[in-house]
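Budget justification, computational time. The allocation requested in the original proposal was used primarily to generate structure tokens for proteins on the priority list. As evidence of use, we reproduce two of the resulting records. The first is shown immediately below.
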Amino acid sequence: MSVTITPPRKRECELCGREERWDDDLDGWQIAGETGNVYCIHEWDINGSFTPLEKSNLS
């Protein structure tokens, strides 16, 4: 059995509403829409409900 880690592809700050998406070409997060508050210490919506681990059975 192996485990695959699936990182998040998008995130939103719960404080200022800033939305970001992951860009594979740039290998980093990019703003997707409004910048939100540039002085915000972002609280991303990635929490216990996001499951990055997926178990798979190898034959």
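The second record produced under the same allocation is shown here.
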Amino acid sequence: MATLPEKVTIFEVGARDGLQNEAHVSTENKIEFINRLSQSGLRHIEAGSFVSPKWVPQMADSMEVMQQIQKQPGVIYSALTPNIRGFELALAAGAEEIAIFGSSSEGFSQHNINCSISESLKRFEPIMLLAQKHQIPVRGYLSCVADCPYDGPTPPQQVANIAKALTGLGCYQISLGDTIGTGTPLRIARMIEAVASQVALENLAVHFHDTWGQALTNIYQALTMGIHVIDSSTAGLGGCPYAEGASGNVATEDVIYLCQGLGIKTGVDLDKIASAGWMITEKIGKQPTSRTSLALKSQHYKQR
């Protein structure tokens, strides 16, 4: 029997990563969504993104959203920041943590942030200095840890080297992202082994998209290896504007249900998460992609 953690931390990315591809979602709906998530037992919620509205117009209201949400004690509200201007805006908005984002592959780095991997690391240095000055924790996203839509398979050692570089810059945690959702458990295991040789396991998180239906099996693999932080998106919302065909992140509801079945504590109320997911998907005219959410909804209607 595999050794599993007693508890995991769920890092909710639905309000940012989940909604950044949705053209028609109001500021009010975003605020209500985050407020509902805040009541669920989640302790980490990514609430906005301070990137150029030219590139991600859906996140142009992040300042308004972060200033108007009803913040709950014990919940950390974070924001994605690509540069110093983004950091300054996140600070003004009241973000308690920021995230920077880099790539494991050169092709994705060029398409996503218009520079090489080495250039991106240099760009992060002034942000890290400011964050240190203001005592703001910084999380590092690392995309394409399994495959790149432009370069093909990503060598595990390459992922490990960049994860080590981000840690060296001062990131307290590295979120390992299977951006196009093509990873399978054996490949994910080899990647985590390589990264764990350079970065302590307690400083790693996983961020899996479910394009090929492998996200939960990959999460289980990661759990057996000592990972205890999981990124997920309520209702399975999301995608990536620079990775055509990439589906949403693994659904928070599905992760909670998996953990319940494994006897792993999350501290998060499944029904409240599902309810928040039904609300936001109804507002944007979509169905949740979460199997757990759909099963709960079907059960709910049967009991009425």
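A brief technical remark on that second record: The radius of gyration is 18 Å.
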